[in-house]
Structures are given as structure tokens and as C-alpha cells.
Amino acid sequence: MSSVKEILKRKPVNATIRLTVPAGGARPGPPVGPALGQYRLNLMTFCKDFNARTQKYKPDTPMAVTITAFKDNTFEFTVKSPSVTWYLKKAAGIEFGSRLPGHVVASVLTLKHIYEIAKIKQSDPYCQYMSLEAISKSIIGTANSMGIKVQKELD
Length: 155
Description:
2 domains; Arc Repressor Mutant, subunit A; alpha+beta; CATH 3.30.1550.10
């Protein structure tokens, strides 16, 4: 049961906004400006905080951000690391996956590549309680669906 104080502390949520913004590249213009502006949120505060949180990533790395806008024009946001598909494409050096996964191999990666991606993804809020093995298996499944073959070692 929630106490009365906890219920009073919760702010009424106005909206949940999901965006993909380049690391260190949040600007008051589109796509950030129109998305936050319609809820009367402080654009400059978001841009400064987002850019500070994503400064450890290379510029132009696509970051998924979920913004919770409250009715009193305040907000909170969480930043997730880039998607597994983005990491796989970067590691494989390809721009697109295979058009016919399972039939045409787009590229080949080693288990070491998969393990490195899994270590990065383990810091995500959704993966923090998963084992590296479970995350790695999930990444291998994604690689297979993209037409990327995973081997123990490169030939």
C-alpha cells in the first residue's frame, strides 16, 4: 500500500515523449524543439542536461531518450545507449543488414564483438539484471535476423 505522502509526492504526468537524438547534439530546433515546446518544457535545460549526459559518446551516435513531462511544466528523462542494431552495423562495417537474412550473409562478426556489445548494453536500465550470457544470446539473435553471421573467430 502506498502511503499518503508518496501519493502527494507524485506529480501528474502530462505526456511521455520518445525521441532519438544524436549524442551531444541536442539543439532547441527540430526534432527536440517542437516535441518539448508543445508541452511548454524548458528547451535549454533539456539540451544542456542531455548533452552533458551524452558527452562520453562519439558525436552523431543515435541516443534513445524518454522524456516524462509533468503538468507543472517540469520533466525527467532517461537516456539509453544506442540500439543493438546500430552497434552491430558499426562493428560489421555495413550500412544495412541483408535483404535475405539466412540466405545472404551481409557480414561476419566474432563472439568477441558480441561480448563487447553485451558489456555496453548491460548498463542499460532494462538489461542491468540480465547476465552477459543472456544479453549476448539476444544480440546473436538480432545479428542472425540482420544477416550477420557470428563465428568463434574470423577465418
